[in-house]
Amino acid sequence: MTEEIISIKNLKAYYVLKAVGGIVHAEIKAVDGVSMKVHSGEILGIAGESGCGKSTLIKTIYGLVEPPLTVVDGSITYNLEGRKISLLELDKSKLSKLWFKDVSYIPQGSMSVLNPVRKIKDQFFDVIKSHYENFNVDEMEQLMIEHFDRLGLPREVLSSYPHQLSGGMRQRVVIALATLLKPRVILADEPTTALDVVVQRGILQLLARVQQELKNTLVVVTHDMGVHAQIAHRLAVMYAGKIVEIGTVEEVFEDPLHPYTKHLIRALPMIGDKARRAGIPGKPPSLRKPPSGCRFHPRCPYATDMCKSAEPLLAQIGRNPSRYVACHLYSG
Amino acid sequence: MRFKASSIRFLKLFWGFARYRPSVTIGVTMLAIILALGFFVSLFAPYDPRRWNQAPRDLPPSSQHILGTTSLGQDVFWLLTWSIRNSLILGVIGSAIGLLIGASLGLIAGYKGGLTDRLILLLSDTFIVLPTFPVLILISTLLRAQLNIVLLGLMMALLTWGMPVRNVRSIVLGLRERDFTYTSVFSGFKTFNIIVSEYLPHTLPWITASFMSRINMCIGTEVTLAIFGLSSLQEATLGTIIYWALKYQALVRGLWWWIAAPVATVVLIVVSLYLVSIGAAEYLNPRSRLYRIKGE
Amino acid sequence: MAALIEAKNVTKIFKIGGLVFGSKLTAVDDVSLTVKEEETKVISLVGESGSGKTTLARILLGLIKPTKGTVAYRGNDVFKLKGARLMEFRKEVQPIFQNPFESFNPLKKVDQYLIGTILNYKIANNEKDAKRITDNTLHLVGLSLDEIEGKYPHEFSGGELQRVSIARALLTNPKLLIADEPVSMIDASLRMEIINIMLDLKQKLKMSILYITHDLATAYYVSDDIAIMYRGSIVEQGPAEEILTKPLHPYTAILLDSLPKPDPKNRWKEEIKLSGLEVKEFEALGCKFANRCPYATNRCLKARPPLLNVKGRLISCWLLAE
């Protein structure tokens, strides 16, 4: 369980905006020095407000790096059954061989995956064909029907067009597509945002079930802490391009260390509790000119002078090898 | 005070537009040259270029007559400058008036819906179905003597106003169900205000592009009519030059400059308007506009 | 005294598809709802997508005509109002929409809507007074005129723009605010600010709010009364505290259980069964939820249960009809 399947070292991915003539005039530091490991067979949650860089992080982990997104520093290493693959060094053709088969990505919004003018069936054919050229039509159809049955999707969906399906159904189709070729790693970016509560539960339980059956690794990015609490094993909290806390999901919820994590959890309303809840004061920081020192200091109730000038490093807490926090309150 | 501010904004917008893309810059430059020729240079004509026997006949281009002369003793260059002016005026009248009627009715039909919508569509569809060209031939044959630029323009406007109606209407139909329409309604704005201040800006890209392509269409139609001798033959338009050149068999007789000049000019106008209209549609598209405002 | 808004047996049927092969979708199915002026309450209308809640909201606002049934504003048919009466209605009943970026025309400056509202409803008749009133109202939502003047919608964050949207609705001093999923598009951690604003406004301005949402947690936090909708029908309705702590309808129970509680020790136990093709549920002969209901009987599949008054709340379920 503790074998690393993805190792990320000091990753820096910026959106580099250039003026005419190639002169750089702004850098949006979406991922600014992230180091972490994803363990094989786990469900890892990445939490944070929108605009903190978590979507960029997961896109980069998938290898979907297109200008203006540029990887400025760092490395991403995959460890797939002994093969060590340095992701950022792969060219487009090698990357596309990896996609859907070893690593799958579920982006925010089903319509960015599904082609509106083709039937679901045909889109599945395309994916299978691009990886297994020798399959004939019947074999492919068999594969798809079995997969749909296993996921509890009605067979009629295969002969529909995306617009004929509801948002929830489309998302389930996208998950089916992402899990079809049994990839080792599934990266999901806000897989259930904008979906109904019951559909959300169904999809999350589906993802968790797939993970259990295939014994693969699932990384879920979402701002909804409730989602993390329900399905994640470990949780990483991200703020302004940096990871500020890591731990098992029980540890983080029971005893949140970073002030931002504390706020994230306490701001959520719960049935049975009518106590007044406070929102987090202030605005999410600009990734162009992030605050000095600790990036959370303008909104932090415990900020000291050191917090304004020195950036706290993500450090292990005590003896616990899985617990990390980037906060001056806990160092030294 | 307000006028000054908005005209400065307009100039800034235009300047940004002209630099938007190479194709647009080329188009705008070509258009500027053509407009200069037609509306500025033409004022300096030493005499009325339409008059016959003002210059020696059939002369090839030279330093005295830059584009040569015609078999009727006209200087081709000055004739061309007046023709550019007239063809453009005709095109603008035909395009603008047709667009004004069509777009207004399209806006109303889209917003009101129901009976109003159906009546307007009935009317506009009837006009769309009318075969423009045969009708124009008919009218010009009947009005032969009284034909002039303005009348030609009006005729074309009247026959082509049907087309913008459906286009503008569909843009409005799309906008009508968007939440900001409801916000406007609950902010107390009345129908007319909503149409003008909420919807019109969204139709501008289409209207701008349409305006320019319609000018092309009008100029082209005039040329075609002229070749059949059905235009306003006493006026100087690009079509009429071609008419007279063909009548006097200019090509066969080796007077290539007489035909080349107007044809080349028509091509230049069409191409430059096309480039500018495509660029304008893109530039003014609400989404790309936002993208640019954001980038500032 | 006539109720502020009274919807009686409202049904809305949409025709989807073409003229020949199209089919009908009953988005709102025989729904009745009353908002009384004397009681300032927050009523939540809770349902998932396809429940008809947004369609119902638009009908109550007079923006969509119902196929059957009536909506009355102080006793008058909303859809027959004209002129000054219509203005009165729109003054007293104001909307807030889900997507703040759609609520404003992206090509218009946001303050134009605010100043416009004041001038159009003659709350002030010159720009100076209008600006002053706008500024005061913006303070109610934690903003000021200086902060928003001259800006386009995209220059704001989602949370800020939604607050502007609320401020705009408050300018006419409405008696009822119909808020359609006002916080769905805002980050979970920022939602509470806006919800708290809504609660404060209810107290300060003595204004009722019809809060439409799919999020039970925020509904619990703000509501006095709650109505749960499924596929166009109200299935359970009554005092919020009771219904959400002791749900009777199976759908309400599943909805509550499906909330992702931020407590890893309290995880979902059963795997939920999701809908097949949703259209079939709308056309069901019996209870629309029967196919997914763990307690469904034959009777549930064959006949629609009526909305009955049981234990102080309205509920539509054969299990409780006896």
List the helices and strands of chain B in order.
Answer: HHHHHHHHHHHH
* Largest beta sheet: strand ordering of chain A: 6-7-8-3-9-10-12-11
* Number of H- or I-type helical stretches of chain A: 10
**CATH architectural group of chain A:** 3-Layer(aba) Sandwich
What is the overall shape of chain A?
A: globular
Q: Quick one: how many beta strands of chain A?
A: 12
CATH superfamily membership of chain A: P-loop containing nucleotide triphosphate hydrolases
Alpha-carbon distance between the two ends of chain A: 31 Å
The CATH class of chain A turns out to be: Alpha Beta
**Radius of gyration of chain B, Cα only, in angstroms?**
22 Å
- How many β-strands of chain B, per DSSP? 0
Q: Helix amount of chain B, in percent?
A: over 70%
Low-confidence stretches of chain B: none
Greatest interface (CB-CB under 8 A), with counts per chain: A-C, 52 and 45 residues
Report mean pLDDT of chain B, rounded to a whole number.
85
Q: How confident overall, as mean pLDDT of chain A?
A: 86
Main sheet makeup of chain A? 8 strands, mixed
- Major β-sheet annotation of chain B: none
Distance between the termini of chain B: 25 Å
The proportion of strand residues of chain A reads 25-35%
